[in-house]
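Follow-up to my earlier ticket, as requested here are the two runs.
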Amino acid sequence: MLRLGSFRQLLLFAFLLITALLVGVALRSVLQYDALMTQSRNAAQRALTLSGAAQSLAERSAAMERAGRQSLVLNDAVLRRRFEDATRDAYGVVQRLVDNGLAPEAADEWRKQSGAIEALLAGPQETALARESSMAMQFRDLDTQNTQLAQQAQVLIQTQNDALADRIESARIRLMREVLAASALALALALAFGVWLARPFKRLERAIVGLGENRLDEPIDIRGPADVRRVSEQLEWLRLRLTELDADKARFLRHISHELKTPLAALREGVSLLEDGVTGALNPAQREVTTILQQNTVSLQGQIEALLRFNAAAFEARQLKRERVELLGLIEEQVHGQRLQWQALALAVKVEGEEIRVSADPDKLGTAIANLLSNAIRFSERGGTIRFVVSSAPGAVHIDITDAGPGIAQADRERIFEPFFRGERQPEYAVKGSGIGLSIVQEYIAAHGGRVVLLDDGPGAHFRIELPRSA
């Protein structure tokens, strides 16, 4: 199995990978920039060379014409050497033009014309004037070729500049695409790593919430980086430990309840014997004492049985048997089951809302609704109305229960779901409750992944069961 490093190592790896990608694009951009700058400098150097060579060729041609024509007229050897030097320099300039991109054919034409001029230097002195006149015409043709060479040099410079501009534009577009692609890839990598690395922490969060909600039957095994796996193993150890403690608590409650019920039964039996006068007739004071004893033994037995019921409910809440349940029908069953209680108080019970089905344990969800209904009947004033409303919300289903009672005192609202807690507003003639009904409701609804809340919009009590759509 592939063993991943720690979260810190994976985060560092992701950071280095994204940084390497961006640095690579930046280095490539710098290299392309350097290459373009080199090409630009080379193009500028060629342009200067071509322009200077074209200008220099015109100057050398003028020097050739001046020295050549004078040497013909004056028959001067010094002027002949000047002509030869200027011609040699001009040949060098033409070759420099060719080396920088000028078409060789144009250079050959210029050399051919220059050779014709050189040929006019040879001949007898008597024909010098005629040859000088022909040389002047040849130099005019050479000037025309110089102009053409200069124009071709300018065209070559412009062509090179256009090619360089095209390369710069192509490089800019390519670089822009690479930067955009690298940025998109870096963003995708960052999102992928973020989602991938955050997923184990979401599972850890769900596992911790499950422990907090006492869902101890789900093993915790979270795959991910090494440190996340260590936390997962520690949470699994904690889950097993909590399971053991929960089992120990259940065992203790069963044992202590059994141990209490045995002497309590003997005490009740003894008090009954005293009340029946088995040990002799009781005077009024003694009978009052036995009455008090009898009431307290009954109350103590009720408390023990309530403790057992709450412990059983907390255990059973983790063992749901889900099926498709139609909520309005389930509520109407509970209302019908307690019709004698609410009819005795002349109450009206209305069930309204949408026909919604959820996947739930009908027995436990029905018990939660029955407990809320029982509370509503117990606290409602005679002739009042108890209302159930089923409605849908984004991703959830709501079951609202309102009664016609005095509502919950503000001081009691924070503790209303605590086991064995009784609020200060108790009905005057009703039997005293055990204080575990709402606690059982909370256990069963939490087991379904929902919650039960007390809303503050009186005058009566308003409870709302919120079940997830998937529940």
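Run two:
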Amino acid sequence: MRISGLTVLLCCCLVGTVRGDDDDVLLARARRILDQAILIDGHNDLPWAVRERTGGDFARYDIRRRLRFGHTDIPRLRAGGVKAQFWSVFVPVSYAEKGIAVRTTLEQFDVVHRMVARYGETFELARSAADVRRIAAAGKIACLIGVEGGHSIDNSLAVLRMYYKLGARYMTLTHSKNTDWADSCTDEPQHGGLTEFGRKVVREMNRLGMLVDISHVSHDTMRDVLEVTRAPVIASHSSAYAVAPFARNVPDDVLQKIRHNGGVVMVNFFSWFVHPEAARRLAQGQRSGPMPQATIDHVLDHIDHIVQVAGVEHVGLGSDYDGIPAPPDGLEDVSTFPRLVAGLLRRGYSEEQIKLIVGGNVLRVLEQAEQVARRLNRRGDRSE
């Protein structure tokens, strides 16, 4: 049978229309799911972005309005269905070398606390899983705090405890360089994982109820942490090494250990960490020239892999917005989470599984860490 060019054109238009209609239906369904779920993003660097642009002045970096720069503001958080956010109180490793890491980290805590106070109609500080549930139910965005890099405690458990009192509910054990007590994934190995003091840090975090974050640490440090910890861990913004082989991502043997530990790997959105070719080039030190740009599908591939290896109860979302220069196409800012949920629906995930991925898993881990802390304190476990 002969098919005319006009017939082919009409068929192509019909297919495009059907696909477009299907996308619209999935996106509407995704938004309904997010209305019911508690979406918790594991990592956002807005506090440092505000510091760099305006010295921490929200009068000049007013997130109440939709901004033409950055990845984050209140209108876009609302559009994205975000109900809880871990804000990073990051400071560069070089600040530890200058002896000002603790002071600057405290200033970053101050940025978060002032932001919550300034936008009190939208934000409320959360110190527990129960707080997150209560704040989300009230229609506000629960604000949690994560310390990004063990260099920020200046080798002091007392500083760690004070950070907890200020609201820190996780700490990433390293950032781009080794600490005196733990190896980073982007530095030459010095300790072979954790030192004895590093183990004390993990145990003290367990006692406090602070989540141990294994993003940025070496794979051997990840393995040591999983041997020491008595509570589930998180990787607040990491992806799957088997999909994109750069050291920032989590290898399969660690994913399997996380399954037994009960923890969660919260997938990072940085194109260079989720696109396989970009990750390979990074691993080989090839940073010249344009890097491949990732898409939503690359992020979904990482979620799929973690689900296959560790299980759907052990994956979450850790965007790294305002800390990454190149988010994937389709995931340009915090407003785009519904597109990711639509992608999960297209790949066959159920609504209940999606609710676990977008926040249920990390909320469960936070609750379990609190339970471990209560048990350890009842037993009289105390740090030095």
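The only thing I checked on run two: The first helix runs from residue 5 to 36. Let me know what else you need.
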